[in-house]
Amino acid sequence: MKTAVYAGTFDPLTLGHQDIIERASELFDRLIIAIAASPAKRPLLSLQERVDLAKEVLQAHPQIEVCGFSGLLIDLMQEQEARFIVRGVRSGADVDYELPLAQLNRQLAGVETLFLAPTPSKSFIAASYVREVASLGGDISALVSPKVAQVIHKKYNAANPIASQSNL
């Protein structure tokens, strides 16, 4: 069984992430979406919220599993008996960042990294853009699934009750 891991913070899970996930799931028998705790990034959503959202959004794909993790990705991969890492790359800057990591992971653990370019219509979507637009009360429905949009808007409205009252 060929198992791959697609790891990230997924704060939040975007349609760009989903594009990579759905396409990668066709290449492997088992795809694990490994959601990193990433406390240094100070995520908007807790690890549990991100895991729960991903499970809900991806539930129609039985070969996809979702888990949270902290620590080294290669440790998780050894636990899960995964030999492949999936990474989405949107630009040359992403490749410049990802390539040395792929080489390091290959050296340390003998794992291969598969780079997937997003579908062009989703190549501009970044979780940071989603958070920025949502924080300013903008429409994120073209960037994330309806469930993710609902949770993100609720999170920002709870953080800023005056703004949420003015939108009524």
From TrEMBL:
Record EC number: 2.7.7.3
Description of how the protein assembles with itself and partners: Homohexamer.
GO molecular function per UniProt: pantetheine-phosphate adenylyltransferase activity
Catalytic activity as recorded in UniProt: (R)-4'-phosphopantetheine + ATP + H(+) = 3'-dephospho-CoA + diphosphate
Binding site for substrate: 9, 41, 73, 87
Name assigned to this protein: Phosphopantetheine adenylyltransferase
InterPro entries named in the record: Cyt_trans-like (IPR004821), PPAT (IPR001980), Rossmann-like_a/b/a_fold (IPR014729)
Cellular compartments annotated: Cytoplasm
Residue intervals of the Cytidyltransferase-like domain: 5-132
Family designation: Belongs to the bacterial CoaD family.
Function: Reversibly transfers an adenylyl group from ATP to 4'-phosphopantetheine, yielding dephospho-CoA (dPCoA) and pyrophosphate.
Organism: Marinospirillum alkalitolerans
Domain of life, source organism: Bacteria
